[in-house]
Amino acid sequence: MTKLKKGTQIELVVENLSFGGKGLARIDGFVIFIDRTIPGQRVLVRITRKKASYAEARVVELLQDSPKAIAPRCMHFGTCGGCLWQNLPYSEQLEVKRNLVWECLAHIGGLSNDFVLPALPSPEIYYYRNKMEYSFAARRWLLPEELELSHLEKPRDFALGLHIKGFYDRVLDIEECHLQSTASVSILKRVRQFALTSELPPYNTHDHAGFWRFLVVRDSKHTGQILVELITAPHRSSSSLVRQLSTLLQAEIPDIRTLVHGISAKKAQIASADTQEVVFGPGYIEEHLGDFRFRISSEAFFQTNSKAARILLDQVSEGCGLTGSEVVWDLYSGGGTMAIGLARAARKVIGFELVQDAVFDAQTNAGLNSVNNCEFVVGDLKDLLRNSSFADNYGSPHVVVTDPPRAGMHPSVVNQLLALEPPRIVYVSCNPATLARDLKVLMKRYRLLRVQPVDLFPHTAHIEAVAVLEIRK
Ligand SMILES: C[S@@+](CC[C@H](N)C(=O)[O-])C[C@H]1O[C@@H](n2cnc3c(N)ncnc32)[C@H](O)[C@@H]1O
After folding, report:
1. CATH classification number, 9-69, choose in 2.70.70.10, 1.20.1250.20, 2.40.128.50, 2.40.50.140
2. Nearest CA, atom 19, ligand 1
3. Whose CA is nearest to atom 13 of ligand 1?
4. What is the pTM of this model?
5. Which CATH class is domain 94-125+305-471?
6. Segments in the chain below pLDDT 70
7. Atom 18 of ligand 1 has which residue's CA nearest to it?
8. Which positions are annotated as active-site residues?
9. Whose C-alpha in 147, 148, 199, 349 is 20 to 30 A from the C-alpha of 305?
10. What pLDDT score was predicted for residue 167?
């Protein structure tokens, strides 16, 4: 075998796609993961990392494209960190995603993959996102053609757009994006123009100075309402600047229903404000999933693809198999989407959630939908489930729905679930690796009936899956 080390250049043919979305090639069985490639491509790569059991590589030149490749829609494809697979037909993406779930279950969970059903497609594969978080940055990502120029048309020390994968401090100035509404891109451009000509600079992650931090746009796919949140660092002129910008946006883009100004002094680059002020409008928008209405405030969790979320909810509902007499516990209940969606078919639903604001949203959403058999409890699940009074007060659950963040369930939550022994568990996961890890433990007492992948994120390597488990008799 060719002796591989960091810096080696080598020609490879991509065989497959791996978890996380990288292409996979082999030399004499030794695995090499290659960024931004699809099966069938012949590429010249440079090894960027060499480990005992695998290597990582970056493409130097595409020697021959895949017979499956199609033309990507977006001018930023290949540079932007948002989409990975616009050049792969959607039917192929679904097949790959099913295989990724399948491989995680087999390799991490030690489970048979007969349980994994074909992935259900997203009803829309473009313009499906209802939320986009843009970052301001003091370092703009330069395009290859700009590297040659002595004079740049746009300054290099200001950007508003999306991060380049792997570069936390550099941002690509997005001109178009096919994952979100055109109104969202218009707002992005208007805010960029305003901030660029304002007297205050963008936030700099190196010295933590600067003002403009994040722009978050949420747009409802069913009501057309738009919410804008501008997150800035604290500054004495912050209110007056954001108010000027707000007046401008309101006049130019009438679909904006509300604008919120968030202030964050955090060093961490996360679009979450320490304090918020509603500049105009009610501070929330309304979205529909089927017959249900949901109020979404600026930082509340809501499934990003509204139309596919409806399919997810239907799958959860089918997995629960409710007849009207059951007590359901909805773990990690967020703004109450699952709990409210299931309530009409259950006797009682109890939601458990860490974030107080999300619990307020869930309570409001229950009211909006005239659902009065739901209760929501705030706290960390690993502490809440230790407290046996919940089962005493609300009744032991017949069905537990669990929808944890990407890290999966805390081991103590998994163990508490085993001790609780609900007859049925419906596990909604956005990360097949942690799903497989948790299922492996749950298999001590449960049988896996099926795993249904649902694609909420076309053109990316993300996949949602609903696993249905039944207690062993
Ligand atoms: C993937 S979201 C699920 C939201 C909800 N099921 C829905 O469909 O809208 C995960 C939720 O878990 C909550 N969460 C994260 N860690 C938690 C913990 N330790 N205890 C309770 N809730 C937690 C988050 O705040 C978030 O709302």
Report:
1. 2.40.50.140
2. 380
3. 332
4. 0.92
5. alpha beta
6. 1-2, 146-147, 149-150, 152, 388
7. 380
8. 430
9. 349
10. 74
